[in-house]
Amino acid sequence: MFRPGAPASSPAHPPDGVSNAEPAAQAVLLDDPQEWSAFGRPVGPTGQAAEDPASCAWDSQVVLEGMHCAACALTIEDALRSVPGVLQADVSAATRRARVVWQPSQVQPSQWMDAVHKAGYRAMPAMDAFAREQRQRENRRALWRWLVAGFCMMQVMMYAWPAYVAQPGDLTGEMEQLLRWASWVITLPMVVFSCGPFFSSALRDIRLRRVSMDLPVALGMAITFVVSTAGTFDPAGIFGKEVYYDSLTMFVFFLLTGRWLELRLRDRTAGALEAVMNRLPDSVERRTADGGFVRVATRRVVAGDTIRVLPGEAFPVDGRITLGSTHADESLLTGESTPVARPVGSTVTAGSYNLQAPVEVHVEGTGGQTRFAQIVALMESASLQKPRLAQLADRIARPFLVAVLVAAGLAAVYWWPSDPGHALMVAVAVLIVTCPCALSLATPVAMLTAAGTLARHGVLVRNLQGLEALAHVDTVVFDKTGTLTRDGMALQAVHTAHGWSAEEVLALAASLARHSMHPASRAVVAAAAALDDGRWAVTDLQEEAGQGLVARVHVRLGAGQPARQVRLGSAHHAGVAPEDAGSALQVVLSEQHVSGAVSELARFDLVEDLRAEAPAVVTALEQGCVAVQLLSGDRVGAVQRVAAQAGIAQAAGECTPQGKLAALQALQAGGHQVAMVGDGLNDGPVLAGAHVSFAFGRAVPLAQSQADFVVLGDSLALVPQTVLLARRTLRVVRQNLWWAAGYNALCVPLAVVGWMPAWLAGLGMALSSLLVVLNAARLARDLPALPAQGEDLRPQQGAVPIDISKTSWLEAA
To answer: pTM surpassing 0.85?
Structure first.
């Protein structure tokens, strides 16, 4: 995985030779504070980076090697949390990654990485080069083990076949013994090489006095091989009646087949999150003092540098183009794959791709200062979260494994008097068939796959638990400004005083509005773009927040003409009486004379720009029996106009933030599961108070957002599509859990009574885990289409009426 500002992508080429060092030496190299930003970020009290890296806690991400299950994740978490100075540790069995929050004044990376090593695993910095190299190495080894197991299985089955088809007297004792010896010789390399990881993991568990999912599997392999070996070396002994090399080789082959396919599918599904994050180049061309360009590591670039980005490369920083023009792919930031024109002077963002031509960029933000860094931080946090169902599976994993060992022992004791060899094989079948791999994978793989699909379409999942909550939503509450409407406004009408033309007042108003970033000012400037001839000069301009502008203006080239004191803003600010403008927001332009009298020059009616897809989104939700409501702090007239255009029947305006929260709580008290959709700017308490929430608005600092889902683009259709995907995800999770529980309920009794041979138990175990991952992989498709007429998202439930105390608070446009 890549941390912003660190090398990522292209050849595995970690900084300062770290990748080629031994694990212990590598960890010591990572104690250098300059390396910490390559796989983590500082997290001070305000969430901002501190000037001294050692003065605040660090949030680091590492890739884990050697873990296979939920019990392994719990073991690593316990090992990390036992290290003084480690404030928090979260390990995901599905992604095989860990998040470690540590205090540099108390502990160094080498120390908590050493704790992982002592627990029997290996931790590596979660930089893209490390992650990709480790994943490829693991895939190669898994493939070789599977190939060796497959070859040995075919050879052993060839030697075992005569015993299955021979009639009494067809095989002499010498020939049968020869076939047993041949099978033993062929099985030996498979046991040593293909089964090696299972045995090493089991020995580690025994040494550390713990239980993981590899322990029962390794016991089953060892018992089968020992019993068969005893029958081969001593045909007249208690285990000489039959050998089980064919069952052992088939079991190992099926198990490794399942694990290899599971590994590939996990890289493809849960790895979708990583694919989104690993976008920045590991190096970039930076301008030198003599005007040339030299390639340097991305993390060496600082604000103020000038870099050259070639076609096909990702922009590694936030900046402004100073030379050249191109088109950029900003799908990571917006969810839209349509290229965006980026001429000279336009801004570019880290993580977007340069598609067309080389450009020179003045660096304005690097590393953790970029929006890309915020996106990566949110995705890393979400990928390591454990939903409620996954936490339950983790909690029962260890007790369940202990119960498996006890059940296998009791089964062996029960069958031993009649046939010791059969008794041990029954125990092996119980050990193998009850391994809870499918149970541990059921929830996290599905949740992470859904999160990866949403991320590719411009929706960040900040809280995996939000997917489960969203699946039960029956009411969606929208904010107005920045959510149902776009951030900008449009000029609807101009009302001028006698003696003034619309063009003249627009030009005069724009001369003031050009100095303000308020949405109303931007609308006036946009309307006057083709009219302003530079006639007016502005001096002594002042802006009163939330009220308007005041300045002195005079006509350029108009010597001898006195300056005018002009005001632009609300009617109160302009010093005139307000008028009913209906649903429009009215901005007044006035002149204050020397005598103190005020004369009105013009009124501008501004309206908000409703998102084009808003009516279709509301219709889709209502057709799916999800009630839709609108809460806004804007004037009632403006709210009703937007509600009518969007097709929302229940709407309330002039709501304070406290009023919005009260309305939300009233819905929840009525038994409704409520989703809140806001712009994230002034809806923090309401977003946090809802069962699940969406935040719109690209200007919102992602780290400060209170929402469970952050929509990076402008498409409102992503809300109902996310609802559909959440419901589909929960269905998949339930299917996986029912399959895992039903498989064990059916197969355990069969294994205990001796009706399930070891090879069939291994096949069942492998197929159960594989089926869970394959079922979750269905979520990696595109987002579901909006529901057609009559298709339900939730059973029909009426919405409770909204009763809110009206105030005169006006939400900023």
So the answer is: no
